[in-house]
């Protein structure tokens, strides 16, 4: 039995979920930070960023799978099983779309677009607030801080909507159909990441309303 499994064995069964969720949130913060930093200094001929995002995405899949395993094995949970399912799936979606964004930026060989890094910064800020929200959700010890983080995530999503609108207006003025198609796809994938973060924030807010 590995150290991680030994640790889990001595945890109260409902606490295992928060251990896993905090690990998921930490992974998302690291992933989004590397994604943002990678886009600031992006090389179309270097697939290092894509490989890193793939590694993070696989790790997120493993963590999500472990949450579902624990959900199947444990009768006692810290909140509704359905909410655990929504929260785990929503967090995994964020990682999936970050990876997809990185993949299409690389595969399309898209030119440098400043809005990409604007989106990635909003994504990273959203992931940091998700980490804060999940930390404060543990034991429902600080519902006010949870709600504050959720409000910030919603505001980041609103800013992302504006970034997308302005970027598309500028993009369509380029009169380059192929480039428009490629860049528009990437911009929309990036915007979806902020949508997914907002979805998770809404799930967390609903949990707080039920239990705090």
TrEMBL record:
Similarity-based family: Belongs to the UPF0111 family.
Protein name stated in the entry: Phosphate transport regulator (Distant homolog of PhoU)
């Amino acid at each position: 039995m590995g150290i991680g499994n030994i640790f889990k064995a001595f945890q109260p069964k409902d606490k295992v979920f928060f251990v896993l969720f905090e690990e998921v949130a930490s992974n998302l913060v690291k992933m989004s930070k590397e994604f943002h930093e990678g886009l600031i200094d992006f090389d179309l001929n270097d697939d290092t960023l894509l490989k890193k995002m793939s590694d993070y995405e696989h790790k997120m899949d493993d963590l999500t799978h472990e949450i579902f395993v624990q959900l199947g094995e444990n009768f006692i949970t810290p909140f509704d099983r359905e909410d655990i399912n929504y929260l785990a799936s929503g967090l995994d979606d964020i990682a999936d779309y970050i990876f997809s964004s990185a993949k299409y930026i690389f595969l399309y060989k898209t030119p440098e677009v400043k809005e990409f890094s604007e989106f990635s910064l909003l994504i990273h800020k959203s992931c940091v607030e998700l980490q804060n929200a999940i930390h404060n959700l543990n034991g429902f010890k600080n519902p006010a801080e949870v709600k504050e983080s959720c409000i910030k995530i919603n505001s980041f999503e609103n800013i992302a909507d504006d970034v997308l609108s302005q970027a598309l207006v500028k993009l369509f003025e380029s009169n380059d159909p192929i480039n428009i198609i490629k860049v528009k796809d990437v911009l929309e994938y990036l915007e979806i990441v902020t949508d997914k973060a907002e979805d998770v924030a809404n799930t967390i807010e609903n949990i707080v309303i039920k239990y705090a």
